[in-house]
Prior knowledge:
The protein is of the alpha/beta class and 939 residues long. The protein contains 28 helices and 32 strands. The protein is elongated, with a radius of gyration of 64 Å. The termini are far apart.
Amino acid sequence: MNEAHMEEKDELQVQVHYALIEQLSANTRRQTKLLALLDECVFECDKHLVFSYVNEAWLNKLGFTPAMLIGKKITSLLETKDSLKLSAYIESIFEGVFSASIELQVKNNDGLTNWFEMRLACDDSGGFIGSLHDIQRHKDYQYLLTQQQEYAKRLSLVASHTNNLVIITDRFGKIEWVNKSFETLTSYKCEEVIGLSPGKLLQGPKTSLESRQLMAKAIKNAEPFQIETVNYDKNKNEYWVAIDATPVKDDDGNVKHFIAIETNITQRVKAEQAIAEIEYNYHSVVDNIPDIVLRLDAQGGLLFMNKAWQDFFQTDINKHLGLPIANFVMGEDVEKLNTALTGYSSGNREVKRLDIRLTNALNEPNWVEMTLTPITSFNGTHLTSIAATVVDIQERVIAEQILLDAKHQAESLAESKSRFMANISHEIRTPLNAVIGCADILHDTGLTTDQKRYTQMIKTSSDALLSILDDVLTYSRFEAQAISIDNQPFSLDICLEEAIDIVSESAVQKGLELIFDLHPDVPAQVVGDHGRIRQIAINLLSNAIKFTQKGSLIVTAQCVEFENNKFTLQLSFKDTGIGIAQNKLESMFKPFIQSDNSITREYGGSGLGLAICKQICDAAGGSITVNSQFGKGSEFIVNYPLLIDTSEQVQREGFSARTKKPYVCVISKNLPLNKAIEHMLTRHSIDFSRLENIEKLDSIDTPEAIVTTNKADLDAAQQFLKSYKSLNKPCLLLIDLLGKNQKTEAPSSGMLMFNGPFKPSHLPRAIAALEEELFHLDIIFTNKKETTLNTATINAQPFKGTHVLVVEDNKNNQIVIQQFLEQQGCLVKIASNGQEAIEKVKTQTIDLIFMDIQMPILDGISATKKIRELAIVTPIIALTANAIHGDKERFIKAGMNDYLAKPIISEKLNLLLNQYLPKLNDAKHSKLERINEIWSLLK
């Protein structure tokens, strides 16, 4: 029974045990199902963190099945840093420091990490029960929030430091925040403007109504807007801003704020306003210019035209924009325009001026002057456009045509005048040639000294007349300013004395003292234009005598500049005449001008003299000036450049070669004359002393000559000479500036009287006249002209045996030139016209031909052409009284070799003979022949 009872009891215990196990299994299944339903990853592990259980969430979250994890350590799913973090977490659990959870990155089955929150608890077996909660989305949100915070921070930093104005408003446009730039520009602080409307705060009287309405509408409709408007700061100063406003919406699309970015464009607007004003002013000016102003493209298309273009074509400007300008140019002139435009396209950048014709509103050709100016890019590399101005020159062209017709008519008249003047020149020069030639021949026929002086005056006066004739011809073509300079060697003192000789009679008759003061430093032999210098002197002397009633006239010659063999001669002509008013001085050198019209009537004259002098000085590179005081006199100063004649044949006057030099005493109270005499004596190296009166003669050494300038002292001087006991008593020279008889007189032995103007040549003339009385000295005084004459006579006929043909219709001129040529040894043949000359050159041997131009039957030019057609190369010299500018070139073109103007100057004739005739060999004359030649000269 007991056993049965025991068995029943055991069976009951077994049933109870099974019942408990079944109940426990049911609980376990429920728990397992519950854990499977959890979203968290639940696990059990031992104390070494080795998995002993994982729920199904591991498969869903990390892709691991329980089989894949059971027996693996949790740390195999963690990075090193998170494993360390887990160890620290477990240690805190053992130490009783409670920590609810830790955040770890757990690797999934693909090796990627996800964020989980881990919680652990100790179980009874010393292991752990835990869970992993997925917090990846939370981490992602947290990261985005952080990024947004950083972005907001950076945005705030940018807004605070940008130069642009930043305004943030609420949905209704009330200010919530402004940046520092807003505060700086407007002078408003952020706290002052919060809650205010920007429009009411910043807009003012110049803010346009349209701008206000546009902004109000955009805010009301929650729309973005961009606008440029004028605002006002706190001090009511206006400024311009460009506003770019954008609404800020939440996730539901509702507008939460407006952000406005405002850019300060005040400077740009002011610049645009300035440009607009400049543009307006430019158009105002350009449109009011009467000339056409255009801008063309590189191909000539019209880009801009001013109002003058519209007025010219009587049409709307816009109709012509873009059209080629060539469409408006006459066909004949289009090529000119296209050539210029093509040049610009090829790189030419020159300004072009074209005279072309445009077709005006009446479809008529209208002459214009078009100026094209290329406009390049900033760096100058390419052509951007072409500026053009068009000036109407229709009236000018018509006027030019009228002037051209008048010019042709004037030229025709001038040609007629030139021919008339040529004929007048021929008619005057032909007889003048005979006068000068005869005087020249007569001068070399053994005349006395006085006779030679008279023949020289004939020649000098004739030359002066010839010079005046040249000036008349020159002023017949005065506009051409065609005075020429012929530089040749000559004696300067003789040249100036020739001018004085011509006017001396007039000066003596008016009772004027005329003194020529030649400074010692002035070279005697120079190279220059003898005739022109003499012409200047004659004109200035004639004027001085004409306008001086009493007193004196002093001519001074000195050097002011020296450079090697070049020097500047300064001539001064000073008178005591009526003078010239200061307001008339500048016009004195103009032609046909005198200081007063009344003077012209009282004193006469053409008014050409000073103008001639001025032209000569200008042509020679010199100058002429005047200093004058009305009522007291005038001084004309001429500066004329010359060369010193350094040729070997020139001999200087003087006593430097004497064995003994004379000593002279000058008795005079006339200071200008004293100076002139002293300069003359110094020039000839003669010692002198000066006394104021003759009573003081006893107080000085005995002179060889006494010079006195006062006739009142003549008797006392003669008495002094009579009482002189020496064998060689002094000679007496009287200089009477007002002496009527201009001959040199010798009233008694040892005395000489010079009448009229004082000249440096008085001294050599006195020496020649008083040679016997001058202590029988070996006086050496050389005169270039006489030496040349005698030498030329003794060594005569250098062209002996040469054949010269003279073609001349005037009998007197035939005689003169034949005489000149025969003196040189030439065999002369005469022909009276060009036809006779042709016949002679055909049949006779001719070495040189002198051919007159104007002749009957056949003139000289035609004859020359026919001779050249016969292949005859004999030199032909034009021999003519024509002196018109350009004739020489005409003669040379006809086949002549050179030109000799009448009257014939022997020196110029000899130069031509030397150039064109063959010289004889230096034939040696026997002593007897030379004696016979000299004897023939003495007869």
